[in-house]
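U., I forgot to send this yesterday:
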Amino acid sequence: MRLTGSGSLVRSVVSHPCFPGSRDGGAPAGYDNVTRDALGRQASADVRYSPCARSRRQHGVPGFMMTLEMMQAFFSDTRQKNIEAGKDWSIDEVCRWSFFFVDEDGSALLPVARHMESLGYTVVGVTEPDGDEDPFFYLQVDKLEQHTPESLQARVEALYAIAEQFEIADYDGMNVVAA
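Result:
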């Protein structure tokens, strides 16, 4: 998997019941993706949440959207993980939020990138497909901002609408790290 942008993170699914080699399979489908740095180490203060476009299509779940209850659980889980890991950042403060869009055609993501940039997001790059296992290009855009579960839910609904507006495969989740 190659990142064709300015960032150094690559995505690696380490716990996902829909993918071969998933280690724990106990998390709800598609919830527990972990971002890794270029050397394959788990990013230290990083929480990734994605319902995974590929698994939704595979399992015939059209129109799936993250719910407010999922957002509340995400915030609660992140707080708990940070406490357990002794992290000194809070998801309730200003954080760096990364948002991901996917499509099987990388060029289809370019208009989305330009649009997101016009909305004040930083375009990090497009990750190329990882062979047959994951045939999707991933566009990552970042923004420093503070969210509540409710404000994040509103943001996510807007991002799903952008994916639909630009007729790409999907909005695919978010990542949060300390600002």
